[in-house]
Design a protein that fits this description.
This protein is mostly beta strands. The protein has two domains: 33-200, Lipocalin (Beta Barrel), CATH 2.40.128; 204-262, no CATH class. Helix content is 2%, strand content 53%. The chain has one helix and 13 strands. The chain has one helix spanning 26-31; strands spanning 34-49, 52-69, 72-90, 96-97, 101-117, 120-135, 142-144, 147-157, 162-172, 174-177, 185-200, 219-221, 224-226. The strands form two sheets. An eight-stranded antiparallel beta barrel has the order 1-2-3-5-6-8-9-11. It is elongated, with a radius of gyration of 28 Å. The relative contact order is 0.16.
């Protein structure tokens, strides 16, 4: 009998092991690059015109959707802003107005990431859109302009799909007040904001369907790949050894004082 050649197997291993199939569907591969976001914060808007000046406080509540590719992102958003706790003085009449109400904004955005420091990514971005202002005087007399703002987003990945961020930005916009029987009054109403929020994207791999599965990383059942079901969305879904829990259980809380914490 002829001896078998070294390095060769008589029966291919794929006769015994199913070739794993990536668990991501075509739809999941597309959706993983779309990021849904929510944010809020605090802003201060300054009214400045020939007839007077003043300021108001803004509290934005916003929802966003953007698509990321390479270092770039494009998207859109909507916000509802509470406005009040300020005053506006008229040079013509001497009257003081408290412009309380709300602002609705719709915008498109574009950005580019320019720097990474440890777990933090910095992105410069621009938003351009329209807004409607509802205040405690006749809103039909208010004609608004296009607005745009520019800022820097500093975000941190808590997991592959969940990020938190802060975004300070400066906003430029204007409006014209059209009083009955009078001349139009132009106001620049620029503002400075600081916001915090989070974004979430659809995971590329489906969650493991076995409730009793204790796998901590991406793994296969049969010939299909799944992600772990053991981690919350704010922790790594496919962590390296000790990445999600770098401190051992015996060094946490009351266990630090025990002789045998396990």
């Amino acid at each position: 009998l002829c001896a078998q050649d070294e390095g060769k197997t008589s029966i291919p291993l794929d006769h015994f092991y199913a070739k794993p199939i990536h668990g991501a569907t075509a739809l999941r591969k597309i959706l993983k690059d779309f990021h849904f976001g929510l944010y809020s914060g605090l802003g201060k808007t300054y009214f400045n015109g020939k007839d007077g000046k003043g300021h108001v406080i803004n509290i934005p509540l916003a929802a966003t959707l953007h698509y990321e590719f390479d270092r770039y992102r494009i998207g859109a958003g909507y916000s509802y802003e509470l406005m009040g706790m300020g005053s506006l003085s008229s040079n013509t009449t001497g009257e003081k107005i408290n412009p309380t109400g709300h602002i609705r904004k719709y915008w498109g955005m574009a950005g580019v990431s320019f720097y990474r420091w440890n777990d933090y990514l910095f992105t410069g971005d621009l938003q351009v859109g329209s807004y409607k202002m509802k205040v405690n005087y006749n809103s039909s007399q208010v004609v608004t302009s296009t607005f745009f703002n520019f800022g820097v987003t500093a975000e941190r990945n808590l997991s592959e799909y969940f990020k938190v961020f802060v975004r300070p930005y400066y906003e430029i916009k204007s409006c014209n007040l059209m009083p009955s029987g009078g001349q139009s009054i132009h106001y620049n109403i620029n503002g400075l904001y600081a916001t915090v929020g989070f974004t979430y994207s659809i995971p590329e791999l489906p969650r493991c369907f076995l409730r009793d599965c204790h796998a901590q990383i991406n793994h296969a059942h049969g010939n299909k790949e799944y992600r772990s079901r053991r981690h919350p969305i704010y922790k790594k879904q496919n962590p390296g050894y000790g990445e999600n829990d770098p401190v051992l259980l015996k060094y946490k809380g009351k266990n630090k004082k025990k002789l045998d914490p396990y």
